[in-house]
Design a protein that fits this description.
six-stranded antiparallel beta sheet, Rossmann fold
Length: 561
């Protein structure tokens, strides 16, 4: 509920601070006193559009502030918590708006700057304003569907539908994606298969190019390598002048020296250590020489093979490893393509089954909506009869969605409230044909019926009783008071039949201070309320009969609690 309202430099209001409790709250006062300014202020605080005209003359800024207290389980608190504007467990909301003549307006939520669109998002869940020229709820098709589903206790069934719908849409998206991928790959399939076959036919081996590059120069220079190896072998092993023969002679000399001088004993070991690797080298040279031969065929084969590998790497990769990686990728793509048709069939079946599930739940939801539409129509007509609108007609139209898709986020239906003010006139959308007074009473009837299922904590009615009187006014007052069992109800009224039924009665009056008009608001004591109701009954001159009638009206309202 709205617990406090502070206003500064707004219209004819200079400074104002008002606190509120629960129940049915009325504002009365002379015409032009500024009653509707209070409603305008609240409207701006929940996302209405400000104007420099709202700012009091000779002031640069107007400041509005409202405090709300919600029940701990209200969904709005979870929303604020998710957006970082409320801590867990908090139930209070503080909204502040500063309206500047420069256009640099500021909005605060729980002490933090916030965008106006967030206020607009909050507004419909926090305050519902109904007036001669302004209706914030139950006029859009989405709000009317929400109201019907709430009345019929259909939220669980709608949630079941939405779950099935989201699952179906997810499968549809998967199918569309796969179909596009298959089409794209089919366009490239011939190229992919050609590339893969070209690489497969080449029978590429990892490191093959390195091995061939090493073998090629041996074949290209086989004659020279044979001659060099012969010379090397001769140096190592040939006759008395070979290195190994000379080392054998050196060994004999060292042995003789060793027998004479013990300090030369290590020389023999050094000579022996040199002989071993040289003998191994000589053997390697011999074997190498035996295998070195000219092989033009093999050389041609290597040249052709390297040329093929170079062309492939230049075409596809840059290296043999990159070629092999691409080959693996092509293999996987082609395998996926080969299996895509089976997956496509599987997804197609899933989409078809998903649609069947959606249709089944949608049909159940439609039947329940039609049942609820009949019941709410009958109840609204009954309420309108009590509000002396017996000649009007009201109905809830539940029809199938138009367009290409038979299903939407909330089922296969559209919901629209239809209204006819005069006998013989066809039913038309409520928002288009009802006058301000008619619309207000229809809204009152709807709110009365939806009171328990409507989660908006604050309802505001601005002169919804205009143009009515007598018994109708008394019925309207009773309905508004009854609504306050489920909501905090604020009402601007000129009718004593309505004012007399308030739990809290505020008087709005103008005063002149220092040659300037200011508006003040004060909570009336019981005796002051009686006097104000009497004034509303009698006019300028308040008589004893008027006071007695006022007292009787107030007492009668209390008796109906």
């Amino acid at each position: 509920m709205l617990t406090e309202l502070r206003i500064s430099n707004f219209g004819v209001i200079e400074q104002l601070a008002v606190t509120f409790g629960a129940g049915f709250i009325v504002f009365t006062g002379e015409t032009g006193a500024g009653k509707s300014l209070l409603i305008d202020a609240v409207t701006l605080l929940v996302g209405g559009r400000p104007s420099a005209e709202h700012i009091r003359a000779q002031a640069e800024e107007a400041e509005l502030e409202a405090a709300f207290q919600l029940l701990p389980d209200h969904p709005l608190l979870a929303l604020l918590h998710s957006k970082g504007f409320a801590r867990a467990g908090e139930t209070d909301i503080l909204i502040r708006r500063v309206i500047s003549r420069t256009g640099r307006n500021r909005t605060y939520l729980n002490g933090n700057l916030c965008p106006v669109h967030l206020l607009e998002e909050l507004g419909g869940a926090l305050v519902d304003v109904h007036g001669q020229h302004e209706q914030q709820s139950l006029l859009s098709p989405s709000a009317q569907m929400e109201a019907l589903d709430a009345f019929g206790s259909l939220h669980a069934l709608r949630q079941e539908y939405q779950t099935a719908y989201r699952h179906w849409q997810s499968r549809v998206a998967d199918l569309e994606t796969l179909t596009a991928q298959i089409a794209q790959r089919r366009e490239r399939e011939d190229l992919l298969r050609f590339q893969f076959q070209e690489m497969t036919d080449a029978e590429i081996e990892a490191g093959e190019d390195v091995r061939l590059e090493q073998e090629r120069p041996r074949l290209m220079h086989s004659q020279q390598l044979g001659e060099l190896s012969d010379q090397l072998h001769e140096i190592l092993y040939a006759g008395d002048q070979g290195v190994l023969s000379l080392l054998a002679g050196a060994r004999k000399l060292v042995s003789k020296m060793e027998s004479i001088d013990a300090t030369t004993i290590d020389w023999a070991r050094t000579v022996d250590e040199a002989v071993v690797p040289l003998r191994e080298l000589a053997e390697q040279v011999r074997r190498y020489r035996d295998h070195v031969e000219a092989n033009p065929d093999r050389l041609l084969e290597i040249e052709q093979r390297l040329d093929r590998l170079h062309r492939l790497t230049k075409k596809y990769g840059g290296s043999l490893d990159a070629l092999l990686a691409l080959q693996d990728s092509l293999r996987a793509q082609l395998a996926q393509l080969d299996h895509a048709e089976a997956h496509l069939q599987e997804l197609t079946r899933a989409v078809e089954q998903g649609m069947l599930n959606v249709r089944e739940v949608a049909e159940r939801l439609s039947r329940k909506r039609l049942e609820a539409a009949k019941k709410i129509t009958a109840q609204v007509m009954k309420e309108l009869g009590a509000l002396r609108m017996e000649r009007t007609r009201f109905s809830v139209d539940v029809s199938r969605l138009a367009g290409d898709s038979p299903f939407g986020q909330n089922g296969q239906d559209t919901v629209e409230f239809m209204f006819s003010a005069n006998p013989g006139e066809p039913l038309k959308p409520l928002a288009k044909v009802a006058s301000g007074g008619e619309l207000s009473r229809v809204m009152l009837a709807l709110k009365t019926i939806l009171a328990e299922s409507d989660h908006v904590p604050v309802l505001i009615f601005d002169e919804v009783d205009a143009g009515v009187g007598g018994a109708v006014a008394e019925v309207m007052g009773a309905r508004l008071r009854n609504l306050s069992r489920h909501h905090q109800v604020l009402c601007v009224t000129h009718l004593p039949q309505v004012g007399s039924q308030a739990h809290a009665h505020y008087l709005v009056e103008k005063q002149v201070r220092q040659n300037r008009t200011v508006t003040q608001v004060r909570l009336l004591r019981p005796d002051e309320q009686e006097e104000e109701v009497a004034r509303m009954l009698a006019g300028v001159t308040v008589t004893k009969k008027a006071r007695a009638a006022a007292a009787e009206m107030i007492a009668s309202a209390k008796d109906r609690q």
